[in-house]
Every structure is written in C-alpha cells, then in structure tokens.
Design goal:
It is a single chain. Helices cover 35% and strands 20% of the residues. By secondary structure, the protein is of the alpha/beta class. A 10-stranded mixed sheet has the order 3-4-5-6-9-10-11-12-13-14, with helices on both faces. The chain has a two-stranded parallel ribbon with strand order 1-2. A hairpin with a 5-residue loop joins strand 4 and strand 5. Helix 1 packs across helix 2, helix 4 crosses helix 5 and helix 6 runs parallel beside helix 9. The longest helix has 15 residues. It binds S-adenosyl-L-homocysteine (SAH).
C-alpha cells in the first residue's frame, strides 16, 4: 500500500529521501509543495522527472473536495463540508475576527463520546482522521477562501484526545516553519475531559491552549449529559487540569454550555466558582445551540448573565461567547448530519438517545 506522504513530518521525509539516495534538500522541496496544496507529484516542477515518478509509485497525496459550502449572511462565517478520499465527510468552519481568521477543524469522522447535546456523536464514531486530513482542512479552507489563517481550534467533529497520536503529528505539521507556520499559542485544543490523555498531552509541553468542555460542576448533572464523566468525574478532571497548568504554565480554558434547567442553576455557579478557585482558569459561557434531535433548550439571557455575575463576583473570569454562523448549521456536526440525511444515508438509523432515558 502506498504511504500518505503529507502525514510525514519533515524529519521523516528527510530520512526517507536519504534512504532513497536523494540529496538532503529534496525533502524540504517536497514538503513545501505539499504544504502549499500541491495535488500531484507532477506539479512539483523543480524535482527531476524520474524522482516524481518514483514518488508517485510509493506515495499518495490526499486532497479533499468540497461537498457543501455555506456562507453566513450575518457575519461572513463559512462552513465547509469536505469529502475525504474514502467518501467520508467532515466539517470545517472559517470564522472572521478583527485580528484575523480562525479555522475550526474536525479530528474524527463522527464521535464516540455520546454527549447528549451534541449532533456530532449521533451516528457514533466512523473513524479517526489522519494528520494530513486535519492539515488539509486548514490548508484547503485557506486556499479556497483566500483567508490568511492566524488561529486554529480543534473544536469541530470528534474528540481530539481520542486521536492523540495523529493530532500531535498534525500539530507538528501545521506548526512547521516550512509549512503553514502557525504558532502553538494560536492553537486551541478542546476535549470533553479524557483526564488520562490530558496528562499525556501535558508532558509534551506544547504552548497551545487546552480547552475543557466542563458544562456542569457536579457529577450528577455532568454525568447526565456527558457519559465520559463516568470514567473521569469532575474532580478527577479538574486535578488533571491543575497538573496541566503546573507542567505547561498555560491557563486552562473551560467551555460551559448553558442548558436550561440542566447547567444554569445558581448553586451550580457557586459550586463551579468554588471548584475553580485558585486555579489559573477562564470560563466561556456558551448558550446551547439547540440541535433538532435533542430535547434540550438554551438558557435564558438572564440566566446566563446571572451565572456570569456569580462567577465574576467570586473571582473567576467568565465571558459569554458570541455565537457566529447561527444561520448556517455552524455547530458541531449539524451540517454533516443534514447532508447525510439529505442523501438518505441516515434514514434507517436509530437515535442513540431520547430525552428521558
Ligand atoms: N470533543 C471535543 C471538541 C468538539 S466539540 C470537546 O468535547 O470539547 C466543541 C465544543 O462544542 C465542546 O465544548 C462541545 O461540548 C460544544 N458543543 C457541542 N454541541 C453543542 C451544542 N449543541 N451547543 C453548544 N455547544 C455545543
């Protein structure tokens, strides 16, 4: 089987070229072509013809195609549904801010985590993405849109820490000075709370921002909406976050979805504040984006404000996240889901969960 060349790091490519008896600078030439979006070895005009042929015999180059693309009329957010080489689709969102563009990428096709409010997990996990498939989302979104990408968030479909090896490889690729050269401080990785993997990531001492989807401060409420809480309860997770800060020196960011009657009670704000006290943390309050298949509603504006005030008064910094792209299914798995439904693929699938389970 041919090897996926775009998932190779520059040192790996250099070793492969050395082994093939090629001069050292060839690896860098190839790497630069790949990270500019070259779709074939044929295009690599500064490589000798016979090398191009030999590369094509041993390696493949991945290139996704656009299955769907939607642009928000309200705020210019663009959502891509990319079709991968095997026909699977993943979502990527391009958001424009004053300081530059942020690309939100998927790390898996589907998701195994089962969060009750999330559309990405409705059909379960199909497969994990390769490093090049993550890179391609950044690369081809930038090429298609013409946007200068300054930030990346791993907050699309999938659980990045469930695909840690490929995610680490992707980070090395996208951070590479010969490639897209996106600084680690401009990258955020969001996890539903795989505490053991947070410890593994901490040891890599990367300067990225770890974002933890907390969504509730007590095990009863969190367990009811996030099955992962059974394996890693709130306090276990927060301990891992404290260790992450001690080892990396990076403040952890907490995502907190405001769900009516589930996560927005005043005593939950009090409990959250006391659990985060003394911790280098920041809380993002995000009103739930209601998903058609899920019987959960967003909190009222007043409930969100009250929650934020309680946190702030108790010394925990909290911001209410502005929601972009609301008119284009721009949240977690909705576009892929709608696409699969339209193509009738999902027609016979049973829902994993119904309210009241
Ligand atoms: N698996 C990772 C990253 C993907 S989800 C994680 O769980 O963090 C990105 C963020 O969107 C997470 O905080 C997730 O909990 C949140 N999210 C999922 N569905 C949502 C919805 N319907 N409304 C608001 N936020 C949602």
């Amino acid at each position: 089987m041919k090897q996926d060349i775009k998932s190779m790091t520059l040192p790996e490519l250099s070793a492969a070229m050395r082994a093939a008896g090629e001069p050292a600078f060839r690896a860098r030439q190839i790497f630069v072509w790949l990270h500019r979006g070259a779709a074939s070895f044929e295009e690599m005009s500064d490589l000798p013809k016979d090398l191009r042929n030999r590369l094509a015999d041993s390696y493949t180059i991945t290139v996704p195609t656009i299955a769907r693309k939607q642009r928000s009329r309200r705020d210019g957010t663009v959502k891509y549904l990319w079709r991968l080489a095997d026909g699977n689709c993943v979502e990527t969102v391009l958001m424009r801010y004053h300081h530059g563009s942020t690309v939100c990428i998927s790390s898996e096709v589907g998701c195994a985590m089962g969060c009750r409010f999330c559309a990405s997990t409705l059909g379960g996990l199909v497969r994990r993405l390769t490093a090049s498939e993550m890179l391609d989302q950044v690369l081809f979104t930038a090429l298609d849109d013409g946007a200068a990408v300054s930030n990346i968030v791993l907050m699309g479909i999938g659980e990045p820490l469930d695909n840690l090896e490929n995610v680490l490889r992707f980070l090395e690729l996208v951070n590479s000075p010969e490639g897209m050269n996106i600084g680690m401080r401009h990258i955020s990785l969001s996890t539903c709370g795989l505490a053991d993997k947070i410890d593994v990531l901490a040891q890599k001492k990367l300067q990225l921002t770890l974002s933890v989807s907390l969504h509730a401060p007590d095990d009863a409420s969190r367990g009811a909406i996030m099955p992962v809480n059974r394996k890693f309860p709130v306090d276990t997770l927060l301990d891992a976050c404290r260790r992450y800060f001690e080892i990396t020196g990076r403040r952890v960011s907490f995502e907190y979805t405001m769900i009516d009657g589930v996560s927005d009670r005043e005593e939950q704000a009090q409990l959250l504040a006391s659990k985060l006290r003394g911790m280098a943390a920041h809380v993002n309050l995000i009103p739930l984006n209601a998903v058609r298949e899920r019987d959960l509603r967003p909190s009222s504006r007043q409930a969100v404000q009250r929650f934020q005030q309680i946190l702030e008064r108790r010394g925990v910094t909290a911001t209410v996240r502005r929601s972009l792209g609301g008119d284009i299914d721009a949240s977690c798995g909705q576009l892929r889901r709608n696409y699969l439904e339209d193509s009738n693929v999902m027609a016979k699938e049973e829902p994993l969960w119904t309210h009241g389970d």
